C-alpha cells in the first residue's frame, strides 16, 4: 500500500496555543495523575468492564450491545492502524517545542487519536442501546479526548478528526445492526 507523506504539525496558531496551554496544565502533578488515569482507563479497561457489565446485567439486550461495540472496536482498530501508517504524523511532543509527553505513547504516530476514536464509537453504540448511560459516557469520552491533548500525545485536530471518524463508525454500526434486524 502506498503511503502519504507525513502530516505536518498544525499550521494554525490557535491549535498550537491550545496544545501548549493544555500541555502546560498537565505539568501539574494532580492534573497529570487525573488525566493519566483517564487515559489508561481508555486503553481498554473501562470499555471491557462496561461490556462485561452489559452482558451480565443487560440480558440479551446487553449481549447485542456488546456485540455491536466489539464489532465497532475491531473496525475502529483496523481503520486506526491504516490511518496511522498512511499519515505518519509525528506526535506533538516530538515536533513542537515546549510540549512534553506526560505519559508514554502506545505507538509512534499522532493521527488519529485511537483513544478518542474508540471512545466515541463505543459510547455512541452503548448509549443507543442503553440511553441511561449517556451522561456517564459523554463525560468520560470528553475526558479521554482532553487527556490526549493535555498529556502531549495528540494535537487538537487529531482528537477532532478521531471524534468525527468515531461518530461515523458508530452510526454505521448502528444502521447496519438495524438493517440486519439486530439493532436497538
Helix and strand topology:
Blueprint: H1 13-25, H2 29-57, H3 59-87, H4 92-95, H5 114-129, H6 134-150, H7 156-179
Helix pairs in contact: 2-3, 2-5, 2-6, 3-5, 3-7, 5-6, 5-7, 6-7
CATH class: Mainly Alpha
> Could you state the oligomeric state of the chains shown?
single chain
Second CATH tier, the architecture: Orthogonal Bundle
Summarize model confidence as the mean pLDDT: 90
Would you tell me the structural class of the helices and strands? Answer: mainly alpha
Beta fraction of the residues?
under 5%
Instruction: Output the radius of gyration.
Output: 17 Å
Please tally the helical runs, counting DSSP H or I stretches of 4 or more residues. 7
What fold name stands as the CATH topology?
Answer: Vanadium-containing Chloroperoxidase, domain 2
Structural domain count: 1
Give the strand tally: 0
Terminal CA distance? 37 Å
Description:
This protein has seven helices and no strands. It is mostly helical and 184 residues long. It has one domain: Vanadium-containing Chloroperoxidase, domain 2 (Orthogonal Bundle). Helix 2 runs antiparallel to helix 6 and helix 5 packs antiparallel against helix 6. The relative contact order is 0.19. The model has no long low-confidence stretch (mean pLDDT 90).
Question: Which terms summarize this structure?
Answer:
single chain, 184 residues, mainly alpha, Vanadium-containing Chloroperoxidase, domain 2, 7 helices, 72% helix, globular
Amino acid at each position: 500500500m502506498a503511503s502519504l507523506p507525513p502530516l505536518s504539525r498544525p499550521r494554525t496558531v490557535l491549535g498550537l496555543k491550545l496544545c501548549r496551554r493544555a500541555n502546560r496544565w498537565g505539568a501539574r502533578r494532580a492534573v497529570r495523575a487525573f488525566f493519566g488515569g483517564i487515559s489508561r482507563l481508555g486503553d481498554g479497561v473501562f470499555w471491557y468492564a462496561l461490556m462485561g457489565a452489559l452482558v451480565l446485567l443487560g440480558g440479551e439486550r446487553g449481549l447485542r450491545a456488546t456485540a455491536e461495540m466489539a464489532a465497532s472496536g475491531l473496525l475502529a482498530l483496523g481503520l486506526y492502524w491504516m490511518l496511522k501508517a498512511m499519515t505518519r504524523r509525528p506526535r506533538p511532543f516530538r515536533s513542537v517545542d515546549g510540549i512534553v509527553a506526560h505519559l508514554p505513547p502506545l505507538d509512534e504516530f499522532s493521527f488519529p487519536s485511537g483513544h478518542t476514536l474508540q471512545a466515541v464509537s463505543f459510547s455512541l453504540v452503548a448509549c443507543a442501546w442503553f440511553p441511561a448511560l449517556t451522561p456517564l459516557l459523554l463525560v468520560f469520552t470528553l475526558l479521554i479526548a482532553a487527556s490526549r491533548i493535555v498529556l502531549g500525545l495528540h494535537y487538537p485536530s487529531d482528537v477532532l478528526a478521531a471524534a468525527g471518524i468515531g461518530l461515523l463508525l458508530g452510526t454505521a454500526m448502528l444502521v447496519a445492526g438495524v438493517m440486519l434486524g439486530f439493532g436497538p
